[in-house]
Structures
1.
Amino acid sequence: MLGQQVKVATAEASPDNGLRRRWRIGEKFIEGWIFLTGLLAIVVLLGIIALLLKEGLPIFLDTPPWEFFFGTRWYPVSEPPTFGIMPFFISTLWVTLVATAISVPVGVACAAYLAEVAPDKVRETVKPIIELLAGIPSVVMGFIGLMLLSPLVQSAFNLNTGLCGLSAGIMLSLMSLPIIVSVSEDALRAVPDEFRQASYALGATRWETIIHVCIPAALSGITAAVMLGVGRAIGETMTVLMVAGGALAVPVSPTEPMMPMTAAIASGIGNAVRGGLQYQALFAIGLILFILTLAVNIIADRVLERQKRKFAR
Amino acid sequence: MNMKLSPDLLSNAPACKKTRLGVTGVNLFYGDFQALRNITLEIPECAITAIIGPSGCGKSSFLRLFNRMNDLITGARVEGRIELDGINIYDKSIDVVELRKRVGMVFQKPNPFPLSVFENVAYGPKRHGRHNRGELEEIVEKSLRQAALWDEVKGKLEQSALALSGGQQQRLCIARVLAVEPEVILMDEPCSALDPVATLKIEDLMRSLTESYTIIIVTHNMQQAARVSDMAAFLMMEADRAGVLVEYGPTSDIFTNPKDKRTEDYITGRFG
Amino acid sequence: MIGSRITSRQLSQQTAFGLLIISAAVVVLPVIFIILQIVISGGSAISWEFLTLAPSQAGKAGGIFPAIIGTFYLMLGTIIIALPVGVLAGIYLTEYAGNNWLTRIINLAIVNLAGVPSIVYGLFGLGVFVLALKLGMSLLSASLTLACQALAMTITTSREAIIAVPREYREGSLAVGATRWQTIRHMVLPQALPGIITGAVLAMSRAAGETAPILVVGAAFLLPRLPQSPFDQFMALPYHLYTVAAHVPGIPQSTMWGVALVLLVVVLSFNVLATVIRLRARRRRYSS
């Protein structure tokens, strides 16, 4: 009954006052913060770009871009210093190549197995193990490469040292597998079942269906998976720092010790003086890395969007 | 006409009650699509007004105009006037939150919060600054009694509301609305997800609430409209799928003596 | 004729499936092998002293206590910064952002933040926090750097968790006159909490294992004391593993494996914790 009285009271007091807009200052304040934090992702990304440009570009005042990109000699402390990043770039290429050559076929095959063939029980055991792999820190993978893999590679290929691009590439392939497997598997699962049934109805076996129907239908998703895996391999630091060998020459084969771009930054930055030429050169390498991975990610994102739209009805 | 009317239906006809909500020349757009066209009607206080019509004719959209729930949909745009006690609720100076306090809503699917029974009812009052436990207990009990649910849940106020039956959940949602002491209650097909027994309970509850509340109910169930409502508005889609008001008047008139051929077709079609 | 054709096709199917199984094994077996190897080789190094003493003789003797504590501080610092920001940004994207160019740019930025190499985050932290903001090579600089890196993840997981809250709850709350923020604060966030926490724990797990950024921002190799303030230097497990394994000669192998084991246990236990929270929340949702 109390309610009734209150209601009458408000109705009689001044009906239009009750509905007048209130300024909830506290809420406006919070909502302002929410908006600002919403922008933070852009701010951080732009901040990264701005910083890399600001600290990295000045190197080109000293070393012309041509010499910087195509120079084969990196002697930051000699007099005069030379900054040619060709050795690092080629090293990154080698380790990424080795990593991709292993992780793509294995990863896609594993995804096809999990999505199309494996019984639920196997799937439920394998997936957590792959997640576990994704959770192992890169420094631990580097450690494993250092302690276990490189002696194996050394004796298998009869090398002077097992710390080389090949070892690093093999460890990297393991590290890009989780993303390749999970994105490819999602892509395969997104293929509508009608496609498979249509194929069976034409008398195709399961394997023929996978290879001629499912994988082609999921191709853009699998492409995105491969791109993401490549992005991961290019950007990975600790593993290549510990396992690739760290030599400064331009490597002509993956079995040579080498220093990919990420490792060059990690090993050089500690000795670089702020604002010095080496510091600038390392930030310029960071800029190149950033652009490379950005391109790879944007393409992967676009391809994934397209895949999503393809089967969305 | 072959429809049966209970004698008491005629007694449902509203006495001369004053207008609570006035709708004048309202158009509703979702982007380019016009959902409602040129709707004008007056809704009396302390009565039940039913909005009926075929599905897709914009009944729910119409109902959601009264507490500005359509505001949540991007691209929704309203033209015309909707007045609550003479105040245009689409005026710039209107506080939507205050409006929703005074115009409560019960949804099609019971949507109790995943909280205890008590917290469900106390949710609204708490948001409006009432935190005194004793006061809240009073409000919760009063609202649950009003919603005819008290006897069924008084021993399990601390249990999850999701454990209640569908009919109980819907009455809990009504209690939740009552707890903020609205003047108008909007009900969007409140019984469509319920069994007949629960439906009847809700209908009884609605009748008992008309003493002090103005109720607008959307329903596709003709018998229900005939049973509970005092006034009825019949909406229909035109060729461009925009909803228009075909006929509006006392429920007894709409059901026994429709003026428009389309109303008659619809009602008879449904009944036999 | 027909019969033999079918068998040859089935034979090729069996061969192909065999290859698929082998590739799955190629993925799975190294993981098991790596983890077993670390557990076995590292287990012998683990002792009470190893876990509770500071390192001595350039890491050759003593324990790794400061590195363990440093890593926990780092995880905590990272999440204290990244979680509120991630949740607020997730709220913005789900509850406020319209379907417009700004939202598309934010989403693009998030996708790309997630792909930026960790070493580049290191450079960013060095340039911004260590040098420009003059925070020095401190726990705070490292936490801020890792928080920037964790941002994409906390935003994404918060956003997913918030989107998963049914629309009916929001409508019910608004319909009783709760404001937008009240609805978020009292209805949406409590419901999204398990998902948000899952994401936070995963982000912590990742921060614990991250090495390259703190290598650039300046973790200390040997610091036989605990950091006294956020502006203090610190040791961390992953950086310690890197230095004992790759930089300091004469470290006993068992020590290296021991550090690797402790790091792995910290990282993976947070991973498992995240999974447990996720599964429990899901079970609760289905049972009610």
Note: The longest strand of chain C covers residues 55-56.
2.
Amino acid sequence: MSALEISDLHKTFLSPEGLPQPVIHVSAFELAERNQVALRGGSGSGKTTFLNLIAGILKPDAGMIKIAGREMSALSESERDRLRATTIGYIFQTFNLLQGYTCLENVLLGMSFGPGVDREFAKALLKRVGLSDRLKHYPRQLSTGQQQRVAVARALANRPKLVLADEPTGNLDQANAREVLGLIRETCGENRAALLLVSHDREVLGQFESVKEFHEINHPVTAREAAR
Amino acid sequence: MSLWRIVYKSLRQHTFSTLITGLSIALAGALLMSVWAVKEQSHAAFTGLTGGFDAVLGVRSAKLQLVLNAIFHMEESPGNLALTDYFEIQKNPNVELAIPIAMGDNYRGHRLVGTIVEMFAQCEYAPGKRHAVKGHGRIFDPTAREALVGSFVAQKLGLKRGDVIHPFHGLIFDEKKEHSETYVVVGVLEPSNTPADRVIWIPLEGIQKMTGHDPQTASDISAILIKLKAGSAIAGQRLSLMYNKQGSRMTFAWPIGQIMAQLFNKIAWVDRVLELVAYLVGCVATASVLASIYNSMNERRREIAILRALGARRSAIFSVIILEAAAIAGLGMLASFFLYSGIMMTVASIVRAQTGVVLDPSAFHPVMIWAPLGMVGLSALAGVVPAVKAYRTDVAENLSPIS
């Protein structure tokens, strides 16, 4: 069973002038279980929209997204929320940690909407990312590299089948970026999660055996172009 | 991590606005509860407090003035009665006990009330309770210049047995109007929580024959306190008919509780205005909960988007905001009980000093149940507005910039 299967996925936004602006048209995409794939794409190419569609944060206009065998597009919004909480881990470029919560609480919070809180596993994850002595620290008390490590631990908190990483090293210096990227890849492997990472950073992409060009899988067309 | 935990975290993150909003709820809740409790308690106290008497007989005047003057030791005396009027009603078969009182002097602002020893020896101010004298004190000798001091006066002026007091003429203290007589304090009354606590009792003749008083009125009295025989309804009606309808010189104020209730009915509009103000303050306070949370929504959009990205449902986010509004109100109402106690203690001390009527700040009142429930419910309802805004938060738009 694939971790992710996509077919004929469409997403169009309206421009400020009210004109339809196609952003996503992915005819087919597949990510095998425990596989790790990087998507290369420039700014504004629709990478984040693509990940948000996969995560169920955005609803596609048409097409099919199957996560670990469950078709996302057939689900109601609350079912998509549930599927996201239990099956998908999401690592953001800007970390998106909650500032009022400690490291441990940020990870526990990720668990609370999923299958349930497992404090020992949360601690083990934070230990794995090298933050066992920072459990009670707040994000503002951590370096950016450490914050992204917390985000990695949080993404894996519910033992997801698929981890989405959106420019996870974009806000880190080179040394930290290399370290965090290695950590993401290792922990996903250890937790048997497939990894789909998007980036435009050559060094990051160089770490992956499988790198796909986003513009090769995504062909958004306007209605006028389609008519032609 | 439960929703309550998320609510707690959110309140902690916004400690200042939580405290300010909670305080406004506390003030509103305390005001609401105080208005109701003072109204209910004072109504019950003033209409139920008769000093053990059923009626007051005085010179022709308003019944309310007679009762306020003779029972609560407030207001001016409307005029005097002849002592023969006392002897006459004392013999009436419907009367069980008649106590004459005379007023017109004070000691440092506290009224001197002349009366007879039966006031203390026979009168029960509440079922089974008679005015008792503290320690080794005793009731005054009716033929001597002796005084029995009410507990509140004794406490306020520091009077004790053996002290000598110098009465002043009139009901309002004026240093220039000192009488030449002196009275020795022979006892201090035990607190009775009645207006008797806030006056100084002396023999009836003491007031009547004080130097400087008009010799022609030396035998006059201010009013007669009357306890009717059992079956007082019929007895009261008979006497009322006799003095109020058939006579024109005197007024028989009966029943005391009903006369006081009429006073409360007359000023019921004040109660209603106070209630309205309290309700409005409550509404303003709950609106402040709405404003406080609503104003924080912009800075919380990202936080909400993160929670949603982690898998929180829209309904969970909606519930968190509602619970937050209810929690602020709940915390505010907890604090309101402390403020309520403070307000009630202040009001009780003022009412006691002015009227002798004792309000109990710790007494239970149903308002203590419905006011907190109402404020929490109303605040939760007010929370719906920001909750809807949170519910509608666009996750993708608020997570991070689209690349």
Note: The longest strand of chain A covers residues 2-14.
3.
Amino acid sequence: MIKNYFKMAWRNLVKHKFISFINLFGLTVGLTCCLLITVYILHETSYDKYNTNASRIYRVTRSFNNKDGAVTLRLGTVAPPFGPLLQNYFPDIQKMTRLLENGKTPVRYEEKIFNEDKLFFADENLVDIFNVAVTKGNPHRALLDPYTGMVTEEIAKKYFGDQDPMNKMIRINNQFNLKITGVYKAFPSTAHIHPEIMVSFNTLKDTAIYGQKSLETNFGNNSFFTYLLLPENYPYQNIIAKFPAFLDDRVHFPGAPANFKPSLRTTLGLQKLTDIHLRSHLDTEAEENGDIMRVYIFGVIALIILLIACINYMNLSTARSTLRAKEIGIRKVAGATRQELIAQFLSESVLISCMSMLLAFGCVALVIPWLNTLSGLTLSLSILLKWQIIVVILLVPFIVGLVSGVYPALFMSAFQPVKTLKGLFRAGGRSISFRQALVVVQFTISIVLIITTAIVFQQLGYMQKASLGYNKDHIVVLPYNIATTTQYESLRNDLLANANIRNVGRSSRIPTGRLLDSQNAALIEADSLQPINTELKFLAGDYDFIPTYDIQMAAGRNYSRDFGTDTSSYVVNEATVQTLGWGTPEKAIGKELSYGGMRGKVVGVMQNFHFESMHQKIVPMVLVLPRLQQAGFFHSISIKFSGANTTEALQAIEKAWKKNVPETPYEFDFLDNRFQKQYESEQRQGSLFTIFACIAIFIACLGLLGLSSFAITQRIKEIGIRKVLGAGAGSIVMLLSKDFLKLVVIAAVIAFPVAWYAMHQWLADFAYRISISWWIFIAAGIIAATVALLTVSIQAIKAAMANPVKSLRTE
Amino acid sequence: MIELQKIYKWHNNGNNRVFLLKDINLTVEEGAFISIMGPSGSGKSTLLNIIGMLDGPSEGSYRFLGQDVFNIKEKQRSQLYKENIGFVFQAYHLIDELTVYENIETPLLYQNIKSAERQAIVADMLDRFQIVGKKDLFPAQLSGGQQQLVGIARALVAKPKLLLADEPTGNLNSKQGEEIMQLFKQINEEDGVTIIQVTHSEKNAAYGKRIIELLDGRIEKK
């Protein structure tokens, strides 16, 4: 029997090629989206789970509170003494490991010199806690001795080619030599952190590098990733609950009064390793994380697209049912029961969805590489190769087949044979309204997606074009480290000697980055210090920082080499003036301030500018001019060049760099690139939404095509009579299209509030945002209506042009 | 075999009740060959559909092989129908997507007959109607007469006791029509299948052993 069902299904498929194509195509597109999103979700939720100890590893976090108890900074990294202190205080901690990221570091082997981004100091416990596939060397000894370390196979290949990397020496930061004592396989793409060079933690004990004493007492340098290994199913909340007591008991901040309770101003926390990728959004993270919300949103989108595709199948199958009415009648006369007919139609839909599933797999295989470039992810089909997932995937076509087939099957199997065989068959009005409801659902979804996409892009455009308060064009940024200090002046002079170079400035951070550092600030009133409750962010910059970035002064002046006293002066921004209640920028000039324990007078007020991305509010900040010996504050050089001659300017910069700083690889970046990168995630979101919106409206149109052709067949006689009575083609197209337009209008009415609410939530994430404008909604409605009208018109025009004699004769 | 008592069939058109059948009383013995005649709209097809259980009367009782057709369970009625009744239509009503062989096989599929047995029965039928050479053709490839032959083969394949035919020769030319009528006569006489046919043609009606005239939903005379 089943064989007969499939035979019939197959012949129907072949006979009605157009409808079958639409059906197969719609379902394939839907399933492809679903599969892709499944791959994405599995990828996102699999982070760090490859570790044998995944469920037992926790990361220590730290946050800071201001005096009101409000959290001002949340870090995924903590100060170095915390690890050993915690291990000592909590006996249940089985193992602890620390990692320190070293930032961009020049690494040299013989003639080869590269900047390495992923250089970490790591201790020997790392391999006991995490799964590290060490391919050469002793995993437990490789990270033990100072000045030894491990590299990934890729790094080994990069520096040593085919030579054996073991015991080779590489020079780190032109500071010390590192002996390679191990090689390991790069961490999987589903790790939240990817060290490529690991230097033994004990190397840090060298005072020239970090210093034993700093490791034990420096509570200010919170840049150490600290992981704990706890027993299976350990109630880690108990440890969190004891953190305040621990802090007050074991931690003493240097310079703080003896009775000062650290727990009032700082909090420690624990994060499950497996929560880091999706649920941790701290101010410092090892790498850019995913977002559980995004996973949910995509999951919902997958289901919605699949639903639209199923609705399509229902619509087209029921629309086509008039064509099959005769067959159904005959089968009933031949003795078929309703159940048998239902089984037949269901096996047809299951067959189609099985075929779609196969096609979808093909599509996914084709699309994944492209999607990876678009999204910056490393997705792979192989993630599906787990039996639990294979079982689900095998079940999906059956579920989809049943869901989309059950309504047409119930609908068609109820046909009365007497009527269908007498040619009196007319599908009832109720079924039409059901299908109209389905079309409304499809268009509601489409309109929501159109609006969403438009608003995402509008916000993106706003962020990219908004006045920043500084000039981001024609600026090249280069890394700066303490080793560059001695050569800096001659580098700067060489650069400025070239007519294409306008300005060269140094700073601790550069615009487009975050502004996270801060120091204690206090106002000086009648010789006593009044601590400031709000945090003033800290930016170290030299004399040339402000002119390089074209930042405008609201009052006063920039730091100047002409004033020897400027190392005890301060330049602040307008937000600071406002926060401190100084009234106007002019009034702020001359006010006394203590910052980081150093007193000084405000000499200038910068106009507010968007140092950080538009996600962040402009915060009060102090631009500090470090004293000469503090040049270690600087991390970047910014070079402003003339836009007229970019190539020449870049050549000049490279030449000057190679001449003055030969031991650091020349690696530049345009500020503009960094600026674009800030909004990469929105850009991606926008592109993906565009794709989803197009797919949704496309599938919805396929459904509409089916429904309109059905409705028009139903009214063919009416059209014939109207034409005989003198109606023109235009008025008939109007007549037929009007009904469908009504559906789109209903869909729009439902879609508008949904879209408004969703986008209102989304925009709340941005400190600077567009206000949602009504015309976007109208435009989305018009787009949907136009596309729908075009679809319907194809059918309507055909019907209106047909010879009425034909349609009337059949009656 | 068939006992119809006081069968009425109507539908409501606004306030008016339009009668399709009025007070039909009819007894048909096994082995009968009945022709129902009458002008268009006299209720011939409605009567045939009620006898064939495709439609129910508004009022009245119908006994088929001793069972009260409209007072038994749907399942039993369906069983009764499947095993005992075959239908032939004016427009043949073959399934366009199925071959001759598959069309004839269809009723057997719904009776859960095993594949091997089905093959034997269908082969037998093809043989008997001399259409073995056409078994893999689709309906569209056949002439009207051939299609009707397939239609009859399909109606008879499940060995029904009653064959109902609604103007079986209406779409055929007179020569083809005559062949079909001869076939009916043969089926009736040799196989003992009871036949009730609806027809417009006096000539075809004459093949029946008994003629019933319908006018405005009533049986005129016997």
Note: Chain B has a mean pLDDT of 90.
